[in-house]
Amino acid sequence: MKQPLRGLWIGPYELPSRVVLAPMAGVTDRPFRMLCRRFGAGLAASEMLHADARLWDTPKSRRRRDHAGEPSPRVVQIAGTDPQMMADAARRNVDAGAEIIDINMGCPAKKVCNRLAGSALLQDEILVARILAAVVAAVAVPVTLKTRTGWDPAHKNGLRIALLAEAEGIRALAIHGRTRDDMYRGVAEHETVRMIKESVKIPVFANGDIDSPQRAREILAATGCDGIMIGRAAQGRPWIFDEVNYFLATNELRADLPLEKVRDIMRAHLEDLYAFYGDATGVRVARKHLIWYCQQHPGKDSLRTSLVAFETPREQLSALDALCEARSIDAAV
Ligand SMILES: Cc1cc2nc3c(=O)[nH]c(=O)nc-3n(C[C@H](O)[C@H](O)[C@H](O)COP(=O)(O)O)c2cc1C
To answer: Strand locations in 24-177, DSSP E?
Structure first.
């Protein structure tokens, strides 16, 4: 059987799959990363960490830096605008166990861009080069870059940024097929991603609106990329990595998961969240995941109401069991 999924290396690491999870602040915490890795994601970067270490001593930041038990290679994403601060942040994370450092120059969030981090940086190519050089020089592990196709549709400098990144020693790129100005509007275009892939020798991951095994294959073929990165489509469907891997390897679609299996996945995910965040925060964080899981099914509004109303792990888990005991989610609403 054709096995197109192996043979992708980032530095010394051969990825178990060329389909990777996109970093998403507020989503890709340690429990979710580990869940996606178990379903076959080739990599799962941490939520973005601001490079300013003075901001790290909060419960949120401490949790973002918690990688206990995660499979190798552990990827930590950092963002910032000061080359020295970025270098220090990279070094400290490597000392704490990061095996790949990913730099975020792709985030349109105002909070980040106002400080010129994220993809606003794309306007200043000299600063980009200084940051990349400083981080690469600071650590012995591979440094990767996640970015967009440019600053706005009139300034698509993604290709120049990619060439610059390769020249500075970046070991892989992930390109979201939108500009910073596009935010999440419209559909991602992968033509610029294809151009970038054709112009560099380092591995390139295509990212943006990949939400099915068929779309994954289409984008791999259209861009010639080495891999793909999936973000929002993994919310409530972490098994999408298995679905895509299977389809790429066999050209066949997996059967839908039976409800009992989905319930077991949800249950285990919720228990991991309670253990990671503590009961009160865990229940709150679990609500958005429950909503995403339920969005896959008809009757989602009543599901949402019944599952998100609870305040304790015991209530939340019993509500989930009660719904699933009705044999199917559809029958329960
Ligand atoms: C809730 C949310 C949080 C995100 N946080 C980050 C982040 O911390 N770092 C980053 O590089 N990109 C972040 N992104 C962008 C994603 O990594 C990805 O590039 C984008 O969602 C497009 O991929 P998709 O269409 O597969 O979701 C975030 C996206 C979402 C929806």
So the answer is: 49-50, 75-79, 100-105, 143-148, 172-176
CA 309 – CA 322 distance, rounded (Å): 14
Contacts of 206 (CB under 8 A, 6+ apart): 175, 177, 190, 193, 197, 219, 220, 223, 225, 227, 228, 229
Name, in order, each residue with C-beta under 8 angstroms of 183's C-beta and a sequence gap of 6 or more: 108
Atom of ligand 1 at shortest range from CA of 178:
22
Measured in Å, residue 104 CA sits from the centre of ligand 1 at 10
- The atom of ligand 1 lying closest to the CA of 22 is 17
Given pLDDT bands bounded at 50, 70 and 90, which one contains residue 333? very low
At residue 231, the 3 state secondary structure works out as: coil
How far does the centroid of ligand 1 lie from the alpha carbon of residue 109, in Å? 10
CA of 318 to the centre of ligand 1 (A): 32
Give yes or no for residue 48 CB within 6 A of ligand 1. yes
Is the Cβ atom of 207 under 6 angstroms away from ligand 1?
A: yes
How confident is the model over 211-259, as pLDDT tens digits?
999 999 999 999 999 999 999 999 999 999 999 999 999 999 999 999 8
Counting ligand 1 atoms within 8 A of each CB, the residue from 103, 107, 122, 193 with the most, and so the one to mutate, is: 107
User: What is the β-pairing status of strands 9-10 and 13-14?
Assistant: antiparallel
Residue nearest to atom 21 of ligand 1 (CA): 231
Question: Is the pTM higher than 0.90?
Answer: yes
50 three-class SS? strand
Catalytic residue numbers, as ranges: 107
Contact predicate 148/209, CB 8 Å? no
> Is it the case that residue 76 has pLDDT exceeding 50?
yes
* Per-residue pLDDT band at 115 (split at 50, 70, 90): low
The span from the CA of 106 to the CA of 148, in Å, is 5
Report CA(49)–ligand 1 centroid distance (Å).
13
Query: What are the tens digits of pLDDT across the range 161-206?
Result: 999 999 999 999 999 999 988 888 999 999 999 999 999 999 999 9
